[in-house]
Design brief:
mainly alpha; Serine Threonine Protein Phosphatase 5, Tetratricopeptide repeat; two-stranded antiparallel ribbon; 27 helices; 2 strands
Length: about 500
């Protein structure tokens, strides 16, 4: 999700900011093509633009967006190499003229930022930090020259928010680069930028990505799910509803938010209706999302989108997780032979960059078959089917320590999302007591959820206790995600 949060920042270009940055009808249409993943069509338009208006610098911005999105969505090394090879040429073009325009420094910053985000995807962390640092410096300089420039505020809002979630053990790198920022600061900047764009009809075409950025920060960093849902609902109404029907990127944004909210039927409908025509760059991850969502509803056809994802995606992330979900599918639908086949495949393909894949690898290495009531309860919970999930756990008994800890954890999560918070607190505390010295994520995430509950109740003393407890635990599964969210919580309540 954080890689994709970057991308909407990078798709913002000028309507008509000086002669060097001319966003005419041809460039506007190319911009819309990008949102709809029609990269070939956008590229053709930009080749025409370069011939008709050779002084227009917008095509080089759009060219870089296309290369960047291919890297982030497709994860193919050839596209990553192309992005890096074209970097200096495009920076040279963008720095040729237009110093008096807010787009002069901003467009160069976006090239550095895009390259930096792509480097993170491919594990080039040192060079990524250098590129993002360069982008940050350009944005700060641009902010000083053009303090009212809305898009500058939007990008800095994202950066300031993300800086506030960096784990303590990596904070030295932030200090060495002289990055500063907090989640409240970043969120305020994004809100201000969003309101400026809403108020200015000239920039209405920037609403989709600005709303997405605000949704990302609200959902992932401020932990305000109702506010994120409110923002996503705006995608369902004019003027954004039409582009939602055509843009897999915006479909992803909405589906991700609904998934977090447990509105699984909406997720499935959005992803099923998402356009997948041949003229669009394929967004295979959406098939992974659809398969996971269908499995959460225990649909008998949940295997097909997962198989589609595995058969076509050439990247490395979520591969192991897809195999794990397929193994669960065949276990649930009583095909033990296929369960074993996909269990073994987890070890043979993919990598461990994302939490989901690390969980899948651990699952395959432990080689402990899930107990069906716990598995069904987990999946139903993920889909927001809370009453059915509780029913699955009625009378559950086990001789396994891990399963006992998972049992109390599942009930805590179910009651929490169901709105029965007092019951959730009881089960979360039981989970921490029995599981805090085990390598599983159940106790750590229980502490995180207790922190969120107490923060919402404005009981900041207990919120701080449980957010801090997450940092003290030693666990393997979902470590980065859970620790990041706990750190974000501590960041939000600092001084309260």
């Amino acid at each position: 999700m954080k890689h994709l949060a970057f991308l909407f920042v990078f798709i913002s270009v000028s309507v008509a900011a000086k002669a060097e940055y001319i966003f005419n009808d041809n460039c506007k249409q190319a911009y819309t093509d990008i949102l709809c993943l029609k990269f070939l069509q956008a590229n053709n338009r930009m080749q025409t633009e370069k011939k008709l208006n050779p002084g227009n610098q917008v095509p080089y911005i759009i060219d870089n967006y296309i290369d960047f999105l291919k890297v982030i969505i497709g994860e193919e090394e050839k596209d990553f190499i192309a992005l890096k090879q074209n970097k200096d040429f495009r920076l040279q073009k963008l720095a040729a003229d237009g110093q008096k325009s807010p787009w002069f420094l901003y467009s160069q910053a976006m090239v550095f930022m895009q390259t930096g985000a792509a480097r993170i995807k491919f594990g080039e962390y040192v060079n990524a930090a250098l590129d993002i640092n360069r982008a940050y410096r350009l944005l700060i300089e641009n902010q000083g020259k053009f303090p009212a420039f809305a898009l500058n505020k939007a990008v800095l809002g994202i950066l300031h928010s993300l800086i506030g979630t960096i784990p303590e053990k990596y904070r030295w790198a932030v200090y060495s680069l002289k990055f500063e920022g907090t989640i409240p600061e970043g969120n305020a900047e994004l809100k201000e930028a969003y309101q400026q764009i809403v108020a200015n009809p000239e920039f209405n075409f920037l609403l989709p990505e600005t709303a997405f950025l605000l949704t990302f920060v609200t959902l992932n960093l401020t932990a305000d799910l109702p506010a994120a849902l409110e923002l996503v609902e705006k995608f369902q109404k004019p003027p954004l509803s039409q582009i939602l029907k055509e843009s897999p990127l915006l479909v992803f944004a909405c589906a991700n938010t609904y998934s977090r909210a447990g509105e699984n039927d909406k997720v499935i409908k959005l992803l099923t209706d998402c356009p997948r025509t041949a003229d669009r760059y394929p967004f295979h991850y959406l098939n992974y999302m659809l398969g996971v969502a269908k499995l959460a509803r225990l649909d008998k056809d949940a295997c097909f989108p997962l198989l589609n994802f595995l058969g076509h995606f050439k990247g490395k992330n979520y591969i192991r997780s897809a195999y794990m979900h397929l193994s669960w599918y065949y276990l649930l639908f009583d095909d033990p032979r296929q369960y074993e086949v996909y269990l073994q495949r987890i070890k043979n393909r993919g990598n461990n960059q994302v939490d989901n894949d690390r969980e899948a690898l651990t699952f395959s290495q432990n080689n402990v078959k899930p107990e069906l009531p716990l598995l069904r309860a987990r999946l139903l919970f993920d889909g927001g089917y809370y009453e059915k999930a509780v029913h699955e756990l009625d009378g559950f008994k086990t001789n396994s320590i891990k399963s006992e800890v998972e049992y109390t954890y599942r009930l805590g999560r179910i009651y929490h999302n169901w709105g029965k918070t007092d019951e959730a607190i009881v089960y979360y505390k039981k989970t921490i007591k029995s599981g805090e010295n085990l390598p599983y994520y159940f106790a750590a995430n229980s502490a995180l959820q207790l922190g969120l509950i107490y923060e919402k109740r404005k009981d900041y003393i207990n919120a701080r206790i449980y957010y801090s407890k997450v940092q003290e635990m030693d666990f393997d599964e979902y470590q980065f995600s859970i620790e990041n969210k706990a750190l974000a919580g501590l960041n939000r309540i600092k001084g309260k």
